[in-house]
Every structure is written in structure tokens, then in C-alpha cells.
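#structure-requests
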Amino acid sequence: MKHAPEPSERSAIQSEGGAMIRRPALVAAVMIWDTVALLALLGYAVFLGTGYEYRSLRPADATELAEPFPEGADAAVLAKIKRDSDKVFKKLTPRGSHVVIDRVHNRLYLWRADTMLLEAAISCGADAKTGREWTFDTPVGRFRVVNRREFPIWVAPDWEFIEANEPIPRSRSARVQEGMLGEYALDLNIPGYMIHGTLYSRLLGRSVSHGCIRVGRDDLRVLWRKVPTGSTVFIF
């Protein structure tokens, strides 16, 4: 006649080899293993980061990253390749000050040759779409400053009023908003995109703009002094 198992029997599992493994101990072991695996995964993700790295170009990059030459390659050929790569990198290196914009981390870097003059928190595009045809992202590529404006005036486009659920004005004067762009604006060679100031400095470091690059007042003043018309702007 079978009888109900004792509490000690209910809390144990009989293994094939005859050893008794208690359920609480087994559950704890599984939880510890899951925790270790999760920590390892998080550590791996932190180690990988976003995959972006910024540093100055080096002529050696052309040969270090190129396919290896077969043994016995002619020394004159290698020397010519090095000379040609030096010319290419010299041509690619910006002259004077240049700006590097990291959209992922919302950071701006001002460089002169290999010296970093400024690192600033910024706001790039929110990468969002309205119900019509506007996409609010910051473009990627190599651009240049084509114009500099002091005390720029913001002429609000249609989407400004659509977002606010307001009627779209017919006159230009009803669209003009002073002070929205801060003290200065650096126009890029992409119509409608610029580096400018902001009234919402508390949001710097977040992707909340409509595509332009918003900069705080003090950092914008540095850019105004150091970035002339024609300067290169890299956005990635």
C-alpha cells in the first residue's frame, strides 16, 4: 500500500546515479548560472559599444588595411603606392578648423589638425516622421559651412504649426520667430540644415531637433569664433 511521501522526499530528486539533489539547491544553481550569463552578455555589449571610433587619418592606414602583397613584391611599386596614399590622405585632411558631429551620442567635436579645441553636448534630429512628408533626421556625410549669420531669424515652416495643432498662416510675418535659433547660425551646404543655438538647453544630449544641430550658448560662441565659412563638417 502506497503512502504519501514525507516532506523530505517531496523536496528531493533522485538522480540516475543514486545521488539526491534537492530542488531548492537546483533552482538556485540555475538562477546563478542565468545571472552569470546575463552579466557576461551585458559586459560584451558594453565592450562592443556602438562600433564608432573617431581618430585622425594616418597614411599608414592605407597599407595596414590593404590586402597583403605577395612575397617578393617590387620595392619600387611599394614605394609608389605609399607616395600615392600620402597624397590622397593629405588631400582628405581638412585644412584649419573642422567639426565632427556624432549623432549617436549627440556630441560635437571641434578640431584643428590633431588638437581638439571643444567637446560639446548637442541635440541632433529625432529621426521621426510627421503624418505628411517630413522626416526629422540629421543627414550623414561630409559637408561644409557656406554661411554665417548673427542673430538669425527663424521662419517657421508648415510642420511647426501642424505639430502645435495650429492653423498654417498665410503671411510670412506670422511665421517669423526671433530668438529661436540663438545668437548665431552656421549654415551647411544642405538646404535648411544648420548649426545653431537653442532655447531648450536642458534637452542637449538628446535627439530632439528637427534635423539641425542645436548647441548651447557658450559652446556656440566658441564655434562662432573658431569656425569660418568654408570649414568642413563631418556628421556620422
